[in-house]
Write a structure and sequence with these properties.
Layout lengths: L7 H29 L3 H14 L4 H13 L3 H18 L6 H21 L3 H14 L4 H13 L3 H14 L5 H12 L3 H21 L4 H20 L3 H14 L4 H13 L3 H14 L4 H13 L2 E3 L2 E3 L4 H11 L6 H10 L14
Antiparallel strand pairs: 1-2
Helix pairs in contact: 1-2, 2-3, 3-4, 4-5, 5-6, 6-7, 7-8, 7-9, 8-9, 9-10, 9-11, 10-11, 11-12, 11-13, 12-13, 13-14, 13-15, 14-15, 15-16, 16-17
Amino acid sequence: NPNGKLTKQQRELLEQETDNAPKINRLVADYHSAMNLEDWTTAIDTLQQLINLDPHRWEFYQNLGRLQQNRLQYEDAAHSYTRGVEELRNLLVNPADTDKTLNNLGDMLLSLAECYERLDQMDKAVTLYKEAAATFPNPFMAHYRACDALNNRGQTDAAVQECTAAIAEEPNQWGPYQTLGAIFTTNERRKDALAVYQSGIAAAQKELAATPDSPVTKAGLGQLLNAQGHLLDQMKQTDAAINAFKQATEVAAYPAMPWFNLCAIYYNQRRSDEALAACEHALASDPTMADAHYIRGTILFGRGKAEQGRYSVPPGTLEDLNGYLQFAPSGEHVNTVRAMIDQINHPIQSSLKPAKK
């Protein structure tokens, strides 16, 4: 008001806010109490009451959306996030802290995009990811999420652009390298994939050096090394593949996989002692790994010999062959395994030869 006096409408609004303040404070306390008790129903109900009292607080919509999203109520969450986006945009008319408001808005747009992705409305999701990228002062995460969404939809070229943009924003983040490497591998761009994986491994190693106890970074490095090993194996660079798998065993969240990959490479190269040792490690990590039982059992079977007219095998052979049947009852090697089992300790013919993979 140019006269410095409040209008009647302004006075009524101020009075309403003053009257509602104690109620809001009580409800905020109730909300935190419900969250501590993991009483999600009460927490959602309390947030809805808070929104009724103060419909212009974007934080209420964000918290409500998160709870609804966690409960798989994606349509309700999308509605809550949409209202939160509206309120944040109103703040941008004259924000006290533009970067902070833009970051909050970008976060809300990402959450909204995730809801539409879950609802299989990918056009809306991708549009929102791109909008978030244009909103954030640092748009790394928006580009990265857009890359994943586009890749899942089969839009490879667009996904590559978004992952490349994410890497340009944050070259020390290993995640986009992993996604981009997988895209290149799927599309037979092996040299590109190999270069990307190498950069991702370097980024993950650097991050792990700074935070040695990070299980997420360790797991990511293990996945990158394992993927690099597979690619090198396909490119017939066997020694380099073995080196990658060995490194992966030291950091992988599921070390049985790189150990088995080593076992398979050694087996295919007829380096049976090394194959046995690698399969031992794989099965020590995961005793249910059927293919490791198969390779170890096959190698041991091949070391059998005729004794008193029967085919005698080293200790553990039969256990491994039966282990394969137990953990892969419909596996591709079932008939071969059964044939080996039938030959163990049964009368042999002069033409008997150990089974081969």
